[in-house]
Amino acid sequence: MQIFPCPFCGPRDETEFHFAAEAGKHRPEPAPEVTDTAWSDYLYGADAPKGRAREVWVHLTCGEFLLLTRDTVTREVLDATALPGRGEAAT
């Protein structure tokens, strides 16, 4: 079991979270001109770095999205930040 820190709810079990996306991965645009290969690469291709990774996760309990920085080797969570424009983080 791994504990993820939700900026809104505090530390929670990883089963309450769902992976949303790699941070910084840009959707190919303009949509009408995107090839099937480019769209497939966007949907199914992942960097899957060994070591430090920045990812977008959603906390299913509160519905808020967060930017999570974690080490994929040690599973250590290095940072969790609320995404801009979302609710107020708990203090």
Automatic annotation (TrEMBL):
Any one GO molecular function term: sarcosine oxidase activity
Q: Which GO terms are recorded in the biological process aspect for this UniProt protein?
A: tetrahydrofolate metabolic process
Record-linked InterPro entries? SoxD, SoxD_sf
Origin organism is Mameliella alba
Q: Could you tell me which Pfam families the record lists for this protein?
A: SoxD (PF04267)
Name of the protein in question:
Sarcosine oxidase subunit delta
